[in-house]
Specification:
Chain A contains nine helices and ten strands. Chain A has 236 residues and is an alpha/beta fold. Chain A has a domain of 133 residues: P-loop containing nucleotide triphosphate hydrolases (Rossmann fold, 3-Layer(aba) Sandwich). In chain A, the strands form two sheets. Chain A has a six-stranded mixed sheet with strand order 6-7-8-3-9-10, sandwiched between helices. A four-stranded antiparallel sheet of chain A has the order 2-1-4-5, with helices on one face. Chain A starts with 5 loop residues before the first strand and ends in a 5-residue tail after the last helix. Chain B is an all-alpha fold. Chain B has one domain. In chain B, helix 4 runs parallel beside helix 6 and helix 5 runs antiparallel to helix 11. The chains are: A alpha/beta (236), B mainly alpha (338). At the A-B interface, helix 2 and helix 3 of A face helix 9 and helix 10 of B.
């Protein structure tokens, strides 16, 4: 049996009596782009945190290519090929674009700094300090820091946050192309439904820390519970 | 899991922290170092040379503090601890005749570095203000120890640093005559700045700036962050210890003043005036400090007030210090500014 690229098994994260995640399980097939949606407070970012090693689960396991990595640090998970980007732009303002991408590449299996800079349209900005480039470029730099070294799994937390509609769609298409050509499995949290429905192969919906539904775009669009809990009339 | 950490690709080191070519840089440092040899020929006054030698020793201490601020984003309020630790290690070694003086010199650099590394593993994790306060507390503790343990260090009266007639095969007089010691200290200062510049441009230098900028993100691109930060503290302490060694060789006397907070404060002021975003900035700050002190000291005993006013003016008008101003004029990028 082929191992899943990434698997969460019964993941629970409690804060006192409150369960931010309550027995969440999900399996990502190699190469798929999985959208993760849900209302605010559904547990999306908490799930990303648990998967990438930013604090462990209260219960449950994280499996990476069939290996239990629940006890590995965030650094070890990144070196193994599990990368993430953040909801807020999370870069190194004083370093040049190239310095920081090369720094990230050095810890990865593959040094493809130039390839990543080129793919994300950052080559011409390579020698500029990150603090001095435009916000949209900073978002792509954030993505470059996660993508460099060709991780096998990428966790993206709202990569299109703060971008215009046009920029968001361009980013979504770029993401889909890169994931396909580099064979990266992606778990994508995003509030922009245009982005989610453009790139996702399958979609998981969280609500109140639990999986409400999982399926293809069409199945999610047609699921009355999802429409009632989250999508509302936005997809009409 | 494959150990990707050990895999290094050719070309990456060049890409990370790329700067001017090393030969050019080394030639520039060598020319600057050589220029120091001309100073004793140009200046006859032994008093002036003495002041300049002291200024260069303090410039090395200020450089140590500036490097810490630049690479770690942490401000030490107690760097005199490493300076004074080196001075007292030399003095106590002379008193007890424990090891050859050459070994004591090396130990006076290595012990502060090791102490800082071990302490750093704990205190560099703390918020910046807590770190600053703890460095101050450690330095003052050592100051009190040397002040009150009279049997060991003769308290406020201080103790001589007994030295052999030759050190590393060189006549000890060379380290105690202003005209020659100035050259020694100057060459050491240039070498320290050159070394720290190379470190700052290396992968380690870029990594530590990245940690300073965004420690969490550095972890999520795969790096451990604690040891590099402790290593920066250790390197800074080693440079502080080196300044202490030069002080001990030149003055051949140790007093608790070498551990006092006021010395830490003065060196920090030099670093701030000069601007720690450039490795050489704090040394420039030391020059400004001593020029102001010398010029105003002849007019009034309240020269510290003028230094204070200078600090305020620099902080408000030149947040990147005098070196930042010069960099602006020369159009150079203020890389990795804190």
């Amino acid at each position: 049996m082929t191992a899943f690229a990434l698997e969460g098994v019964g993941l629970t994260r409690r804060y006192g009596g409150f369960a931010a995640l309550d027995g969440v399980s999900l399996e990502l097939e190699p190469g798929e782009i999985r959208g993760l949606i849900g209302p605010n407070g559904a547990g999306k970012s908490t799930l990303m945190d648990v998967l990438c090693g930013r604090g462990g689960p209260t219960a449950g396991r994280v499996m990476f290519k069939g290996r239990d990595i629940s006890r590995l640090s965030a650094q070890a998970r990144r070196r193994a090929g599990l990368a993430r980007s953040f909801q807020k732009t999370n870069i190194f303002p004083a370093l040049t674009v190239r310095e920081q991408v090369a720094l990230a590449a050095r810890m990865a299996e593959t040094d493809n700094t130039d390839e990543v800079l080129d793919a994300l349209g950052l080559s011409e900005l390579a020698d500029r300090r990150a603090a001095d480039i435009a916000y949209g470029d900073q978002r792509r730099l954030d993505l470059a820091l996660a993508l460099v070294g060709r991780p096998s799994v990428l966790l993206l937390d709202e990569p299109a946050a703060g971008l215009s509609i046009k920029e968001s769609i361009v980013l979504a298409l770029l993401l889909k192309e890169l994931a396909s050509s580099w064979n990266v499995t992606v778990l994508l949290v995003e509030h922009d439904m245009d982005v989610i429905f453009t790139v996702s192969d399958r979609i998981t919906v969280l609500n109140l820390g639990r999986v409400l539904a999982e399926g293809t775009r069409e199945e999610i669009r047609g699921n009355p519970e999802v429409v009632r809990a989250y999508l509302g009339s936005s997809i009409e | 899991m494959s150990d990707a950490v050990t895999q290094r690709k050719p070309g990456v080191a060049a890409a990370v922290g790329a700067g001017p070519r090393v030969p050019t840089f080394v030639v520039a440092a060598a020319v600057l170092a050589a220029a120091g040899f001309a100073v004793p020929w140009l200046i006859d006054s032994q008093l002036a040379l003495t002041l300049m030698t002291q200024a260069v020793i303090y410039a090395i201490l200020a450089t140590a503090i500036g490097f810490m601020i630049r690479q770690n984003g942490l401000t030490s309020f107690g760097h005199a601890a490493f300076f004074g630790m080196a001075v007292y290690l030399m003095a106590l070694n002379g008193k007890f005749d424990a090891v050859p003086a050459e070994l004591a010199v090396l130990a006076a650099i290595a012990v502060p570095a090791a102490f800082a590394f071990l302490a750093g593993l704990i205190i560099v994790r703390l918020p910046a203000l807590s770190f600053s306060m703890l460095t101050l507390a450690v330095a003052q503790s050592l100051h009190e120890l040397m002040l009150r343990w009279r049997e060991l260090a003769n308290g406020d009266d201080g103790m001589p640093v007994r030295l052999p007639s030759t050190l590393f095969g060189v006549d000890i007089e060379l380290f105690q005559a202003p005209s020659t010691m100035f050259v020694v200290c100057w060459v050491v200062l240039v070498a320290v700045i050159a070394l720290l510049t190379l470190v700052a441009r290396s992968h380690f230098g870029v990594l530590t700036v990245a940690i300073r900028e965004n420690e969490e993100r550095t972890r999520y691109v795969g790096y451990h962050t604690l040891v590099p930060r402790a290593l920066v503290f250790a390197l800074s302490a080693a440079v502080g210890g080196l300044a202490g060694v030069l002080f001990a060789l030149y003055n051949a006397f140790a007093t608790p003043g070498a551990l006092h907070w006021s010395l830490s404060g003065e060196a920090l002021i030099m670093a701030v005036i000069g601007g720690p975003h450039a490795i050489w900035g704090p040394a420039l700050g030391a020059v400004v400090f001593f020029v102001v002190k010398d010029a105003v000291g002849d007019l009034t005993e309240h020269w510290p007030a003028i230094i204070g006013a200078t600090l305020i003016v620099v902080t408000v008008l030149l947040p990147q210090g005098v070196s930042g101003l010069l960099a602006r004029f020369t159009g150079r990028r203020a890389a990795s500014k804190p």
